[in-house]
Amino acid sequence: MNMLLDHAVMEIASTPPIDLSGLPGAFQRAFGPTEPFPDDFGPIEMLDVTPLPYRGNRPINVRSRGSCRILAILLDLETGLPRRYGLDSQLEYHHLALTLVNPSVVQVREQVGPLPFTDETGKAAKHFIDLLIQNRDGRRIAVAVKPTERLASGRFIRELECLRASIVPRIADELRLVTEHCISRVQAFNAIMYQRFALCPDHDVDTRLAEVLESVHGEISICDLTRLCRAGGRGFRCIVRGMYEGVLAKVSPGRINFFTMVRAA
Whole-structure pTM over 0.90, yes or no? Predict the structure, then answer.
């Protein structure tokens, strides 16, 4: 005999009312302003500039299923114009972004080669350098980028030792191995954001930011500084660029966001 159904259990329970009066304030504290920033300038007009072509010696197959391949448009240090860079992995992309914001670097070439060398068995071999960096002091650094999981067998390390004997000092003064442990993902995130904003200069808002900073003393959050600039989202872009171009100094650690504290440099 079947038991009688308990209709009280099957009924949809009503949700008790929730006080939402503090939600906007909580959202603002957690994610930043909920209202648009004041804007005296309107949308930015981006220049129609054709990026410089990829300069690497090795083709980048963006359809590869075995790894992440990236064709990124970032600033070219020699010309200051947008350039297409070809990278074989996200790790290379992060290291390139950090290299491009390093003030001691004046030139970066990627996928350089093929460089001939003799491997550990005595056979002729070839290798592409991931990055070739030229510093202001004249030093040239060849960089091999590899995740640590690819180094366990020791084969790549032995290959680099053979390559080092061949290219130093003919091609570079130093051969450097870079892994994910050499890179801060937070700093890479910030560098990539700056590179994207730097592709589109905004001299009008740069001028407004300089005027606002004359009346700002001590530390201020990016959120409050953006409000003072009255340039909408363009103010945030200029503030981020100013942190890398000597206008502002970043005070608080971590990823750059509205709560980051800055001060005039």
Answer: no
